[in-house]
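Work Package 4 report. The design task specified in the project plan requires that, given a folded chain encoded as structure tokens, an amino acid be chosen for each position. We show below one input record used in the internal validation round.
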């Protein structure tokens, strides 16, 4: 019979958190894996101890080698190994059996005596904080796993930079341990507070967040304003976003973002994805940053002229091109190469010449293109009457790979 690899969750109170059976399995195992803090609970262990380091790939290699040697192995983990832990990965890679302890999130909500089935739970432990703003915006109850870099203080500073003053924070430190401390903070105070590295953060709304549905009013955006305003107008923006067919986790490129109106709405449509935007004009770039803070969207924004920088971004599910500054072919070369197989490119053109050039370029690259001519008029008062004022006609070109095209 193949030896069983057990992954056992532990609390901050060490061996006291283990069932007697789990402790028996640990002591009878041939090899015990874990972090130094967890292994320190078993000083009298007579088998071989191995500190987990060097990444999960290295750990899997060691575990497979031990299985071949018919060794009984236990891997110690914190809390619930299947909750942002190593349990799911090891279950798939080495057929490990999981024995969870209570997760830090469960314990934290127990301390504030609230249910947590309605909470949004996320983690910035060992990962970037980028995009956290749009993921949690508007959610009344949020739980966040932190780390030594993304501390409660740095998270509070980050949220305040997006104007999220409506949240109150609860920090639960060293849960279940000798030095447990739990306390409520306003974000301004938390931004100046040093917490234990072992902590869980809960955010609760004290008032409702501002809300924006798709098709944000043009005047809500900071923008340069010549006669017509340098912004993708609300109606065109809505049609273009619809054509992109964004999903919750889409990776989006916005080329020629200007005020960032399309990028911002895309980020709100795909809060679990990521948006990458480029703009060559410094004044527009500053307006875009102001709009990102106003609408709580954490976009990767680059100052430059496409196709520069595009090769550094991850492969996109969707690309919006609002302007090419005369470099359409070079931009479409990299966009069509990098776009995922089921992805879409939406390009807005004002002139017949740009429309023709775009259609020829897409066809040459094995893409099928469809065009919508959007001619929009808005009502405008004149004395005590109403007339209509037309916006510039826009060609909305939607392109995607033809079946069989590489």
């Amino acid at each position: 019979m193949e030896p069983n690899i057990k992954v056992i969750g532990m609390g901050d109170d060490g061996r006291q958190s283990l069932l007697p059976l789990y402790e028996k399995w640990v002591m009878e195992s041939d090899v015990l894996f874990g972090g130094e803090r967890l292994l320190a609970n078993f000083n009298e262990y007579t088998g071989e101890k191995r500190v987990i380091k060097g990444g999960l790939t290295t750990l899997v290699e060691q575990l497979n080698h031990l299985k071949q040697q018919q060794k009984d192995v236990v891997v110690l983990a914190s809390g619930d190994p299947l909750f942002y832990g190593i349990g799911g990965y090891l279950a798939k890679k080495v057929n490990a059996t999981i024995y969870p302890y209570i997760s830090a999130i469960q314990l934290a909500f127990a301390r504030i005596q609230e249910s947590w089935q309605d909470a949004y739970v996320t983690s910035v432990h060992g990962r970037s904080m980028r995009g956290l703003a749009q993921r949690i915006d508007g959610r009344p109850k949020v739980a966040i796993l932190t780390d030594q870099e993304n501390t409660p203080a740095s998270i509070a500073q980050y949220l305040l930079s997006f104007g999220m003053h409506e949240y109150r924070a609860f920090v639960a430190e060293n849960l279940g341990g000798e030095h447990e401390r739990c306390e409520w903070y306003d974000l301004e105070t938390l931004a100046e507070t040093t917490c234990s590295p072992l902590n869980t953060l809960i955010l609760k709304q004290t008032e409702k967040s501002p809300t924006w549905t798709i098709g944000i009013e043009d005047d809500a955006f900071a923008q340069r304003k010549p006669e017509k305003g340098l912004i993708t107008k609300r109606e065109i923006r809505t049609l273009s976003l619809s054509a992109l067919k964004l999903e919750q986790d889409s990776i989006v490129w916005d080329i020629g973002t200007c005020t960032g109106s399309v990028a911002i709405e895309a980020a709100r449509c795909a809060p679990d994805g990521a948006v990458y935007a480029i703009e060559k004009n410094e004044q527009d770039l500053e307006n875009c940053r102001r709009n990102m803070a106003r609408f709580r969207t954490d976009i990767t924004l680059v100052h430059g002229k496409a196709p520069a920088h595009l090769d550094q971004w991850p492969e996109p599910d969707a690309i919006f091109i609002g302007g090419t500054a005369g470099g359409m072919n070079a931009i479409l070369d990299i966009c069509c190469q990098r776009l995922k197989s089921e992805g879409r490119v939406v390009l807005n053109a004002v002139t017949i010449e740009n429309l023709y050039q775009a259609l020829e370029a897409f066809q040459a690259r094995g893409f099928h293109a469809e065009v919508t001519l959007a001619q929009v008029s808005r009502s405008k008062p004149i004395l005590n009457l109403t007339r209509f004022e037309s916006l510039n006609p826009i060609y909305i070109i939607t392109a995607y790979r033809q079946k069989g095209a590489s």
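The longest helix spans residues 56-68. Validation will be extended to a larger panel in the next phase.
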